[in-house]
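Anyone up for a design puzzle?
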């Protein structure tokens, strides 16, 4: 199983935990479990961009990862101040961005 498939499975598990969950503590736990997944994505994106310096795909992936970082940071900053519904939306947005990056990585030329 590839790294992208493992990350995709982790995202599926996190998404299942988010669905229908309105408990702030559980959503916070999902956030804490999502942070290492973002680190794994960062490693995959950095490896690709290092191997394909200057390519359009590398620039696109790097930009997509920067957007993901901004989103996860915003969720982290708002975690104590936002409602569970807002936290859920932020987490779902992060997972969607992770999936988009995974799709771009899998379709990018090697």
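Challenge accepted. My sequence:
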């Amino acid at each position: 199983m590839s790294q992208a498939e493992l990350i995709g499975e982790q995202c599926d598990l996190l998404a299942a935990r988010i669905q229908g969950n309105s408990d702030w503590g559980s959503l916070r736990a999902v956030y804490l479990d999502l942070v290492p997944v973002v680190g794994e994505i960062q490693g995959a994106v950095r490896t690709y961009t290092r191997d394909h310096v200057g390519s359009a795909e590398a620039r696109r992936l790097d930009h997509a990862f920067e957007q993901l970082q901004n989103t996860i940071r915003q969720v982290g900053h708002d975690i104590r101040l936002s409602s569970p519904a807002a936290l859920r939306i932020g987490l779902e947005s992060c997972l969607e961005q992770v999936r988009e990056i995974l799709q771009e990585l899998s379709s990018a030329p090697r």
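A detail worth pointing out: Residues 24-51 form the longest helix (28 residues).
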